[in-house]
Design brief:
With 460 residues, the chain is mainly beta. The protein contains 2 helices and 30 strands. The strands form 8 sheets. A 4-stranded antiparallel β-sheet has the order 3-30-29-28, with no helix packed on it. The chain has a 4-stranded antiparallel β-sheet with strand order 4-5-6-7, with no helix packed on it. Strands 8-9-10-11 form a 4-stranded antiparallel β-sheet, with no helix packed on it.
Length: 460
Amino acid sequence: MFSNADFEVVGFSSLAEPKSDDTCSKRKMQESSSQTELKSFEEGTQTNSNKDSGIQTEEIVKNLNSDYNVDNLAAFLKRISPDVLLELNKAEKSKAFTQYRDISDEQQFHNTIKATHIIQSAEVPKIPEVKVSSLSWSCTGNVISFGYETFEHEDWCTHKSSVDFYNITMSDFDEKKPRHAISTTSCVTYLATHPFEPTIIAIGTADGDVHIWDLKKVDRDVSIGNIFHHKDRITRLSWETINSQLYLVSSALDGNLFLLKVVPSIGSVVISERYIMTNEGTELLPGINTYGFSTQPGVFVVALESGELLHCSTFSAPTIPSTSFKNPVLKSIAEKTALVTDLKFSPFIEHLFIICCVNKTFLIYSLKESVHLYRMHINFIPLGLAWSRNQGNIFFLWGQSQKVHVFNSDNGRAVAELQSDISNYDTINSVAVSPKSSRLGLSIGNGRVLIWEIPEFFIT
């Protein structure tokens, strides 16, 4: 069965593969017959050799003895202390962040309001049936200003009125005591604060005067330049940018519309342009009830006392022969509307504007269309309108109602009605939208002004 046999030696290379459960180190082996070195590799095994991988560190010793000059430090602190104390005092008086709060998305879309202040000066001008005729916020949104007038004038106005200024963010804010009160020689009909300079404001009066004040000079003469005169009641003032130049625009019942170039730094005010809405001379001009400028440079619409709407431009206004006036009218938009109480262009869509009328209607127009887009009937006489600061299709309407009504300009439909718990009034005479916050200023009866906080956004 078994036998003996001799064979030649054969050499070959081999590799021993360790098992997965090996825990021992393998050794190197040699085949002496072939002189071939056999190698084994260790996988997943523990070894006794250790190798340190790290860095060398030194103990840190803090030097608490800084090298500085005490005299130099004392001189530095003495030099900066007055300025530091001044800023700290300003910060202590400010209430800029006292009403700051984190508003969730759901809270931003509620339709409730919060009445934060009821302002009524203890020294309201002694005018019969006094009312706050116009309100205006400073460009910082901190100061609200308002002027007074009577409801009706039987003759040329000789009432002594005033403009009150309240900084509602100051710690010493007093609802019955204005920070500044500046008197006027007749009733105040319109206010317009400068869009970039918080201390500059334009004032229009019932006797046709246009004042421009700088409150930085409140201890002296606040007037900038000369007083400019219309021949009748001022119906609107606004600051408008035309070809990179800022103008103060004024309109009046005398049928004139002026562009005033104001340079506060040198106290200069000059009339840049004079416009009338006819080519038939300067006698018996139709009065201007209000106007509105588009964001398209030089384009504006005028509403006359007759209810006619005129599409105008400052760039195509020929000079009327033998006068210093120009006629900016391009065409008539509507000849038979009711008396227009307000007109505002959208700040977001250059061709879109809205008018409200005494016949309890408002109309939405586009300069691209020959007729109005929407004509909506409401249940109160509107006295004014304003666009939302946050939503391009939202505008506010107010008048002979206790509410501020919110509408959608896309379709003319009502969105919300805003009303506070205060109900002892029946008319909102004027409203001003803060340029920096969700505040509204509202003027109601007996010279009172309400400050509301309203929703940031409305669901449309």
